[in-house]
Every structure is written in C-alpha cells, then in structure tokens.
Structure prediction request, 174 residues.
Amino acid sequence: MTHTYRATAGRGTSGTGRGGGRKDRASRLALLPLRIFLGVTFVYAGIDKLTDSAFFAASGPGSIGDQMRGIRDGSAVPWLVDLALSSPETFGYAIALGELAAGIGTLIGLLARGAALGGALISLSLWLTVSWQVEPYYLGNDLVYFVAWVPLLLAGAAAPSVDALLAERRRRTR
Prediction:
C-alpha cells in the first residue's frame, strides 16, 4: 500500500486526475524562468565588472570610486557608501564576485537559497544606495531585482537543480 501512495502522492491534491501530474510539474518549474533571468543577469553583471579595467579604480571615468562619490549624498544609507569608499577596489571586487556567485548558484541551483540571499542583499544595497533617489520609484530597477529574489529565497530551487539532485541522492542512500 505504501508503494501505491508514493506513486500517486505527487500528482496533485486529489492524486487521481490525469492533469495532476502536469500541474505538479508546472509547479516545480514555475520559478525556472525567474532563476534563468536572474542567474544570467547577475553572471553578466559580474563578468561585465570583472572585465572592465576602469571599474576597479578608486577614481576616474567609470570607476567604482567615482560612482560611489556621485551617489553618496542621495543615498538612503550614506554610511554604507562611506564604508565602500574606504576601499573602493575591494568593494568593487566583492560586488562583482558576489554577483557572479549568486548568478551561477541560481542558474545551476546550487545552494539556491544562499545564492538568492546573496542576490537579494546585493540588490537591496544597490537600491538603498545607487537607485534610491530615482523617481518615480518603479523606474529604479534594483528594487525590482530585490523583490524578484524573494520567491527564490523562500522556495529554493526545485528540479532541475544541483540541490534537487543532491537531495535525491541523499534520499536514495538512506
């Protein structure tokens, strides 16, 4: 009897209808487009920074230092900008590598909730600093990115993901 229960439990709430299996599959894949979008976007942003030699300079056109000085007074958290300005190059690398890690983790579904937390924190810090003074607020994309990370933070990554494969492997070896 246990085998029968397991065979029907994943088909939806009734466990009897033909559409239940499709509905369950759709639920598992619902966040995949969001994972792909955020993953690709954050990988691209990280690589873009890492390949821009001007970005990591303390000053000069396109530098992280000049960008931070330019947004400091309009920021909701000027102390955070001051912290970044204490070592702009280090902060620039931290952001770029953080974006890369969050993007890769999200794309492949490895430590998905941790990757989503990292992406959300990066987006929140960018919203509170870089795009805080954008009016109307909905034109500032960092807030939208922050909100987009929340479902992935709450749900993690269902299949297809490395996390799901590892969970399945652990389940089989018990």
